[in-house]
Specification:
The complex is a heterodimer. Chain A is mostly beta strands. Chain A contains no helices and eleven strands. In chain A, the strands form two sheets. In chain A, strands 2, 4, 5, 6, 9, 10 and 11 form a seven-stranded mixed sheet that branches. By secondary structure, chain B is an all-beta fold. Chain B is about 0% helix and about 50% strand. In chain B, the strands form three sheets. In chain B, strands 2-12-11-6-7-8 form a six-stranded mixed sheet, with no helix packed on it. The radius of gyration of chain B is 13 Å and the shape is globular. The chains are: A mainly beta, B mainly beta. Chains A and B meet through β5 of A and β6 and β7 of B.
Chain lengths: ~120, ~120
Amino acid sequence: QVQLKETGPGLVQPTQTLSITCTVSGFSLTSYYMQWVRLTPGKGLEWMGFIRSGGTTEYNSEFKSRLTINRDTAKNQVFLEMNSLKTEDTGVYYCARGGMGLWLPYWGQGTLVTVSS
Amino acid sequence: DIVMTQSPSSLAVSAGETVTINCKSSQSLFWSRSQMNYLAWYQQKPGQSPKLLIYSASTRQSGVPDRFIGGGSGTDFTLTISGVQAEDLAVYYCQHHYDSLPPYTFGAGTKLELK
């Protein structure tokens, strides 16, 4: 069955770079878009971006040039990298997979990221 | 960017009541070519990931109880829960999924609480 699992660092210092890995099983990354969504106390749920089945990406301009999404199809992994972290980036980060469209029936359990010195 | 405005922000209900949550988008989410509205509803309970309830405004995701009903078109949408059960207490979010109009923004959420 479809499974997604995020692994992240837990604690990141301000100005540093966040790296999260989403490991998937039960499907191929070359067949589906993979999306990243976060839940923060200040802004609720935010759509961050996605990587298409063909490997191209689309980002929320809210994150300007801070965000990069890429993948390793051989390892069934999708990566989120975001630099110049601020305390407001504290929250739970989710990877999610769509179905036939961009709605999201499949989610990972999320990984909590705390940005603090 | 499309702005999604949800109301109310919180709602206190008793078990068995019927409740309606509203979601308004700053642009139409209807695509005439497909005759579809690109709006989804999610339920999120504390400590859990969001759960997809409804997509394309009114299509219930597989396994979702039929007491959850999505409606509306264009810019105005509703999620109705007929006969609220204790397990429905959660935060509900709308999100647009109109392909050509990223970012796919969420509403601020509606917290359903027990009266």
